[in-house]
Amino acid sequence: MEDAAKNTHTAVSAQAETDARDDRYQPATIEAKWAERWAADPDMYAAEPASSGKPKYYVLEMLPYPSGQLHMGHVRNYAIGDALARYKWMQGCNVLHPMGWDAFGLPAENAAIKNNTPPREWTIGNIASMKQQMQRLGLSYDWRNEVTTCLPDYYRWNQWFFIRMFERGLAYRKQSKVNWCPQCATVLANEQVVNGCCWRHDDQIVELRNLEQWFFRTTEYAQELLDGLDQLPNWPDKVRTMQRNWIGRSDGAELAFEVVAGEPMQGDAGKEILPASGVTLTGDRITVFTTRIDTIYGATSVQLAPEHPLVTGWAAGDPTLREHVDGMLEQQKAAREGGDLAGLEKHGAFTGHYAQNPFTGELLPVWIANYILADYGTGAIMSVPAHDERDWEFAGKYGLPVRQVVEVPGAENALPVLGEEGAVLVHSGKWSGLACAEARAQLSAEAAAGGYGRATITFRLKDWGVSRQRYWGTPIPMLYCGDCGIVPVPDDQLPVLLPENVAITQQGGSPLAQVPEFVNATCPKCGGPARRETDTMDTFVDSSWYFYRYTSAKDSTAPFDKEAAKYWFPIDQYIGGVEHAILHLIYSRFWTKVMRDLGLITNAEPAERLFTQGMVIKNGAKMSKSKGNVVSPDEMIGRYGADATRMYALFAAPPDRDLEWQEDGVAGVSRFLAKVYRFVQRHSAAALEAGDAALPEQPNADEQVVLRKLHQCIRKITEDFNDRWHFNTCIAAIMELQNVLTGADERFASGAIRPEVTAHVLRRVVLLLAPFAPYMTAELWAELGESGGLLRTPWPAFDEALAKASELEVPVQINGKLRTVIKLAADAGEPAMREAALGDERVLAAIEGKQVVKMIVVPGKLVNLVVR
Ligand code: ANZ
Ligand code: ZN
Ligand code: ZN
Fold this sequence. Notes:
The chain is about 40% helix and about 20% strand. By secondary structure, the chain is of the alpha+beta class. The longest helix has 28 residues, at about 665-690. One zinc ion (ZN) binds next to loops.
């Protein structure tokens, strides 16, 4: 397939010469010619050093996974970035516009299993063909700083960062629950679990397994990650909201309940509160997390997650409790897998134990409940049925007491009372009468003074589990020594190379564990035998900092050059899909903060502006292989050219909205380009004749019309690039402009529009189209006698005086009598004149109650209404 494409390419180039004077628009010919020239100049899109003195502009599109083929979503993403980069170059900026490959990951291993091709070979081959596609699209990337994450010159720095984090306690090992597919026989990332099933086996429910895993301590930066969102006004609100919810800060209090001694009560007990008389404490404490310490007098039970350590201890000597625990774990698991933990039907069981309310001294029954999560807060709560929906439901089901302790004076106060507006505490001892917020502050302070509680903040954000039992990823640079424990690989032994020729099977476990040469190592501390970590890193590690590497991708002494990063960062504009709003964009913000604390960078956030483009839809569904509705960019390019294909991706919808793909839309854009092409060709001789001559001082009426339209268009597009990015309306504006030009075609041909004006107009039409249609504009630019590239040609300046609508005064008659004079744009057509006349107040007053039987419009001269 590749070879066939190449052959057409050469054939087309040969034809280029013969077609050179043909004024029909032939994208294949034009694009082949320019692609060849551009390929011969690898520095075309090179970023300049800081010493250039120009304002820097770093524009970045998210790097793709090298699956083998670009899809239309990619084309759209890159067309947006490319238009912006070209515009910034024309604005005189020093632009960094790089590209790379997120090249580790599961599909390469799946392909290896399926086709018996080594993951590296498969990946590198895909990169080559996708790079070719990108070049064919005419994308302006600076390939000198290409980053390929699966190559050792990149991933060695993942390892280097891992060790820096380990030294700072930011990388650590712990037991945790992970998603496990029995058929794949390996761990899956959260994002590889779809509706509770394996993404490759959609009838296989994912299991939870307990495994020792490596984690990055993202929670260390939870508050900063949250606060930083306020410093990112140019990120979409929806992304910031999603991140805020994901981080999930909750302000509350921890409160310790002492477990009291005594024979555990059996049977139906546990439904009442016992008075505090003559109690002995066991020394065990249950610490609950609550956001409503103000409701402490309304607590009627304490509830623990089934996995709470106290429960595990109790259940060891209590088979009935053990059975309850197992049942609830099963229910939680099923609900997790079904993706509806919140809708879980509540079940609970009395543990037989009591704990003491630290404020009232009363003894509350301790229950276990399936809706208490072990990994949130402290895995234990105080249950307040009168003021919490879930507790209310639970108490109703099991007949637990309800005590109202908050009320809005004078209001109805139907239970449960959830709101706080105007509410005060009741039945709460000396705290009664206090407003809720004030009560929380006072009760927390009292608990802290008494040593049984304190105000705390809890985050929903979890530490990032980065171990993967996979082959095609960065080896984790850690060693296990029988004597020294966990020892990092010394820096001078990096990279830990990923061995080649590893058998990848579905038998499970880390494939690297089957490679003795890899596993068996020497402890750098004691020189004894050591075992190498055989898990690899999550591929989100790779994408967390790749954009720093772009500033100095060849550096073999550091992850990147500090000075270069200081110059280029933060990224001025990052562009990608909204599906990365949480994972990638939180991880990379975390990584930036870690790097700042390591002294590598000075910026606290990676990107100043973020833009998330909409999806590409076909026949109502997201374009994707599995839906079978994929339109191949190659096919579109083959039929209509790269310019029309990428321009359609910008024209069909505002970039932040979904785009419904329609092939006749591409054809339409192609026809428009042909129209521009023919027009410029037809009048280029006049433009050449005028050369650099200035515009005439007094443009005539014909000239005014086209100059006004042209400068209005320049104004609109300039404003859009700086602000709204409604490229669809920008392109529509150029289309309108072209219609006006085509309408004036005869006047251009006859010289009624003078050559100086023709030159002015044609040059600017080409410049305005340059960010969108690089091939055709390159061709036309040469046609206009220009030898320099468009990228370094200044963006056309907007001339206010020319853009101003020169107004015409048009008399309006009613039944032949002059009634008023209306003001109109000089080029207003018949419909605009009708509308203006019928919208004029004096005309409206004159025809009120009458019927307009006829309207005579003489364009630019007169309106006459016949009324009865
Ligand atoms: C008593 C109480 C009374 C509560 C009241 C709420 C209302 P957010 O805002 O999401 O942080 N909770 C705490 N840990 C839990 C866990 N591991 N599993 C399930 N629920 C848990 O919610 C905090 C509230 O959720 C806490 O405040 C606790 O219930 C419950 F009128 O404590 B509250
Ligand atoms: Zn599977
Ligand atoms: Zn050792």
